[in-house]
UniProtKB/TrEMBL annotation:
Top-level division of the source organism's lineage: Bacteria
Active-site positions on this chain: S24
GO biological process: DNA integration
Keyword tags: DNA integration, DNA invertase, DNA recombination, DNA-binding
The family this protein is said to belong to: Belongs to the site-specific recombinase resolvase family.
Keyword DNA-binding part of the UniProt annotation: yes
Protein's name according to its UniProt entry: Recombinase family protein
Keyword Transport found: no
GO molecular function: DNA binding; DNA strand exchange activity
């Protein structure tokens, strides 16, 4: 028996235990979840504030990008991670592709054990059955409608009746507004800090570094909707001034620094050289002092939060 216990322990992943704690609103706290996760051995805990109905989880997306082989993602309950069975399976598929693992403390899901994998396979079979039943019901409904001489779909939209088209457009706008509001707290403060001094390309690049993936076009459209609903200042849509080459470097260095604050100035300089970025004076070799000047400018313009202690520590590196 002792040997079986030792064998099971040896099969456990030897990587980090990373906790993920999520609450739906800013008024709620993740403290209770953090206590359970730390009791389970998590030394790193990622916090997220976001609706359970939305898949837009920047902190989770960044965690999944950075998790390493052998690491284990741990949650208190499945509903803290996924909004549906299909979403859960997508997340676990991403983890499996990176040779990482998943465990839920209050559910029988642990991809490091045979029992946990069996439970996961059952969930996958349920999701597949659900998709098959929906498809079967849809096909049966279309067949029944055709047998009665009816065409599938909304007849008002098919016949392009103005009142039905207006109703559909209103529903689409309402759904879009709900999606924008569900994620605005994650990106709107950065937009307010950077606009209109910086272009939409710059802002989208900074947001991607922070785990929120959006194109400049989608970002501008979302801000335009918020302005139209009087939820954001119209000044955000003003045309940004012509950008000097050095301004682009400030944004680039800020993005590198924000994505990994532990990088030293010399390491950032090496990244810039690998990207074949020219220095402000047109040289090909970057010095730590040049990087520090750009980071200081980024901090003064609000692209980087903090009092500068990180930069001073990085200089020593």
């Amino acid at each position: 028996m002792a040997r079986d216990t030792q064998n099971r322990a040896s099969r456990r992943p030897q990587g980090r235990l990373i906790g993920y704690a999520r609450v739906s609103t800013d008024e709620q706290t993740t403290e209770a979840q953090e206590i359970e996760l730390r009791s389970a051995g998590c030394d790193v805990i990622v916090q997220e504030h976001g609706s359970g109905a939305s898949r837009a989880r920047p902190a989770l997306a960044k965690l999944l990008r950075e998790i390493g082989a052998g690491d284990t993602l741990i949650v208190v309950r499945l509903d803290r991670l996924a909004r549906s069975v299909s979403h859960l399976l997508d997340v676990i598929e991403d983890l499996t592709a990176k040779s990482a693992h998943f465990r839920s403390l209050r559910d029988p899901i642990d991809t490091t054990t045979p029992q946990g994998m069996f439970s996961l396979q059952v969930l996958g079979a349920v999701a597949q059955l659900e998709r098959a039943l929906i498809s079967e019901r849809t096909k049966a409904g279309i067949k029944a409608a055709k047998s009665k001489g009816r065409l599938p779909g909304n007849p008002g939209i098919r016949e392009r009746r103005p009142e039905m088209l207006a109703k559909m457009t209103a529903a689409q706008k309402a759904a879009y507004g709900d999606r924008v509001q569900a994620t605005a707290s994650q990106w709107l403060p950065i937009v307010r800090r950077m606009r209109p001094d910086h272009s939409w390309d710059d802002i989208a690049r900074v947001l991607r570094q922070r785990g929120f993936d959006s194109t400049p076009e989608r970002l501008r459209r979302a801000v335009k909707w918020l302005v139209g609903e009087h939820m954001a200042d119209r000044a955000l849509l003003r045309k940004s001034p012509p950008r000097l080459p050095e301004d682009r470097l400030v944004t680039l260095v800020a993005g590198i620094h924000v994505s990994n604050p532990n990088l030293t100035l010399r390491e950032i300089a090496s990244q810039l050289e690998r990207l074949h970025e020219r220095t402000p004076r047109g040289g090909s070799k970057w010095s730590p002092s040049s990087v520090k000047n750009l980071i200081d400018r980024a901090r003064r313009s609000g692209l980087i939060a903090g009092d500068g202690n990180t930069t001073e520590a990085a200089t020593k590196g």
